[in-house]
């Protein structure tokens, strides 16, 4: 039997193994992570013993192997005493076989303290495997020769076998030992990290003449070939999302060659929703890379996949906004590699500012997030950039579709040993073909928006336990429109309209696991943010230069307690130049056309200093319960105010064995300081306090089957907000802390986890977001309230590189303030609308169907793929708002783009 990699090579003759040869085994596993082991039923069906799926080495029971000398680094636990599990009588009688994957917790002495079923088999196999595994004895895992606790995955396989052939009497006839096809090349395919079986992988065997045979791995990653003639074969393993592996194998006569192939991921991408492991937040959901890349309607953009999850509202039109649990877009903060950035989506929300190919993870927290985050009331998006490929080879990618074109190159840095790099760039080019189309159609628009983004990563590992990274990221969105005709409503709305938003960040990040108990991570960033808007002679210009540092130290106090403490520093200068009329505040009457409003000039440079510190404990009083209390302290120099934010999250495993049931809940206080234009004279109001929000949440997670789970969560947010008012006496805009609001709702996610052919989920959010500007006034709908948000999607692999998917969305229309009349403004020479009750109506219900088709061709050294992603395939005329004639007596519907096709072609090497 052979096992790749690092497993000893061994061949077994056809026949049965005597039970005395399998009394002990050495098991490969990951300490405090995910490993794998397997067990094979004995010939009498009364027990199970370790097999080569883990690289087991067969040794006589009466002569145990000497303990290995202490080595540097991590050594996994090694099985010393195996206890066979009785074969369930019912399963044996019915001829049923099964595989049970267990999660084993092993303490510093090598005792199994807990055995949990991860992948059940039913028919009594689960209970038998658990009871036997609890009696196992291990040599404990070691870190630099020191025993430590570990968590591994152990595969227990129950297999019925024929009775042993009786030894023939001397001179008597022999009994044939095998009838039918001879299985002479078999094995499993697993991941190189975590040692997890891969289902649906393609295994091809090609002989010297070029004749080829194909097999597909099952749920346990197993495959086999029968009746292969003796000789040399080239075995090739291909699995979506993993690097191709080619190995030469020898098949000998009357021998079984068993192998385990471990394949490396092309670039693991994990999207974590509401939390990270270990869970310091209320809940955690993970989307796999295949799901992210194949979700219809997203064009394979990972960050756009967030919009399909519970708690995230649909932004109006093509706005690139992230609206979380009824909060305004500015109440959700975005981090890239720990550095704060001003936006996550380009113009129109058609793509994000970081390409999917560079992502390592996406942590999304819609509420009750850890104390390591602050200065926001809504949610957090924390995007991690993956490490450059470090296999010593150069890799690249190029893609083009109707929206943009992009390229990526990565590999070793010439002349710098141990350093690797990744560079990527993207540019939209729909302005190239959209401008002629608009001109030909007689549109007054003479230009279309264009965006760029770029990334550069340089990384090395000074030690086995540390990583040093330098990065440079940026984005630039520009739009310039020349309107040929003046607006009949507002004559000033003609001439040059320009808009630009851009940013860049230069950062350094250092991570070091100083010991098993102490970890340090720190990231420092500096950059620029530019926001410009011009309309004729009016303009708004903002330049912002932030310097930030986020440093955290984690210390394990013991087996059941870990403390995290850190600082979150921000220093910035901002230059603001404005020449524009004051916009109306929510609930105020429309002051009329721009031409009738006197412009206000504003030119100021301000300095912002906002340091923070936090401490958080992870407590596990016992295995089923985790409690995470924390406290964050913020200081805002511009308003000279301190904010204390205590928070508490907890999880309790109500049913530990499969199907598992977990309860979760959290509460906490969150603050956001006022914007400097709200608190700084001459236009701001001194003496303001920070906005404040209290989050409450309670939910449950339930396994329904091996592939299906459901989570339901209720949430409530109470908010104290800064609002602007215009007193009658002064007529000038003033700000105060009298605003109030709340958001209440529930979320549901029913998910089918990806198997070798299908993935999908159904998400539903029911919520209500209400605000009032002053005490005593009636509550009104918030601008971004959406009562019902329903999303259903799925994708199915058809075979031969084809995959088909669909997404359907049904969402409540956005709130709308109706126009009930108009007044003529003689000074401006135009009509001013008379508004009805603020946000008292809604636009029509939004509904849309999106389809996606993928095709991939795999070549020896590269692959080619293409896709067609079509949004709104049945041409739904979804209402985004209304436009009125000059005297507001007639209105017309403003609809979104009726159909958005995207055809892409991509090559990877």
Topology of helices and strands:
Elements: E1 12-13, E2 39-41, E3 48-50, E4 74-75, E5 78-81, H1 89-94, E6 98-106, E7 112-119, H2 125-133, E8 137-139, E9 141-143, E10 146-148, E11 150-158, E12 183-191, E13 202-206, E14 212-216, E15 222-226, E16 231-238, E17 245-251, E18 255-263, E19 270-273, E20 285-287, H3 289-294, E21 312-313, E22 323-324, E23 333-336, E24 339-341, E25 359-365, E26 380-385, E27 395-400, E28 404-412, E29 420-428, H4 430-440, E30 450-460, E31 466-483, E32 495-513, E33 518-535, E34 538-558, E35 561-580, E36 600-609, E37 612-622, E38 625-636, E39 641-655, E40 661-672, H5 676-679, E41 691-703, E42 708-725, E43 734-752, E44 758-772, E45 780-781, E46 788-799, E47 802-811, E48 815-816, E49 819-825, E50 830-835, E51 841-842, E52 846-858, E53 863-871, E54 879-884, E55 891-895, E56 900-908
Parallel strand pairs: 12-18, 19-25, 23-26
Antiparallel strand pairs: 1-18, 2-3, 4-9, 5-8, 6-7, 6-11, 9-10, 12-15, 13-14, 13-16, 16-17, 19-20, 21-22, 23-24, 25-26, 27-28, 27-56, 28-29, 29-30, 30-31, 31-32, 32-33, 33-34, 34-35, 35-36, 35-37, 37-38, 38-39, 39-40, 40-41, 41-42, 42-43, 43-44, 44-45, 44-46, 46-47, 47-52, 48-51, 49-50, 52-53, ...
